[in-house]
Amino acid sequence: AQSVTQLDSQVPVFEEAPVELRCNYSSSVSVYLFWYVQYPNQGLQLLLKYLSGSTLVKGINGFEAEFNKSQTSFHLRKPSVHISDTAEYFCAVNQVVGSSNTGKLIFGQGTTLQVKP
Amino acid sequence: DTEVTQTPKHLVMGMTNKKSLKCEQHMGHRAMYWYKQKAKKPPELMFVYSYEKLSINESVPSRFSPECPNSSLLNLHLHALQPEDSALYLCASSPTPSGGSSNEQFFGPGTRLTVL
Fold first, then answer.
1. Bridge partners (DSSP) listed for residue A102
2. In this complex, do A42 and B109 lie within 8 Å of one another by their Cβ atoms?
3. Does residue A106 contact residue A2 with C-beta atoms inside 8 Å?
4. How far apart are CA A28 and CA A23, in angstroms?
């Protein structure tokens, strides 16, 4: 079974500083990896996804992530954060359920990004 | 139309009430999902509908009853809930249910449920 580990539960950072949110996954098969963001009292919004090809993936709001197969990691980065980036961030991997050919997302526990002025 | 809508936004119900949550998408997606999310936790999958048929039930108690009347609509019927069922209920959809694809899911804003 696949699993996702987000190594930091909270990441405090000052505005305009760079940030990295760490995500490691375990899987014995090819994976599709996702980062979602959840602002307070809202649903989840896709930031970016890795399907195949280039290991550096660019997403919305200036975020990017690098897929590293040898280290089974998919860390999220932003060179300069804004107050508005304060939110909960979830890393997820797609897992096939049995023989149903139905996929389900396996989420990490989430990382709270707190951007301070 | 590229969004998933959910109604109501907030719901307060007693343990003896019967209520329903509604989810709608008009993106032509053939897979729809119900998740439950507690504060500061990731979403927990409850049900998956694939081509309007229930394909995954994650051992959810029978007091939660899903229904997919057509490819655009997904309901969650609630009956005899417990206070611990209070949570944010999220609906999502994806183009296909296939686990072999990117299976990107689009989430609605959720219904905040409080059970008294």
1. A97, B98
2. yes
3. yes
4. 17
Give residues 21 to 50 of A whose Cβ lies within 8 Å of B: 32, 34, 36, 41-46, 49
Alpha-carbon gap, residue B42 to B26, rounded angstroms: 26
Task: Give pLDDT, residue B18.
Answer: 94
B58, two tokens: 């994650």
Residues B32-83 have pLDDT tens digits of 999 999 998 999 999 999 999 998 899 999 999 999 999 999 999 999 999 9
Q: A103 touching B, CB under 8 A?
A: yes
Alpha helices in B1-116 (DSSP H): none
Q: Which chain A residue is nearest to residue B94, measuring alpha carbons?
A: A103
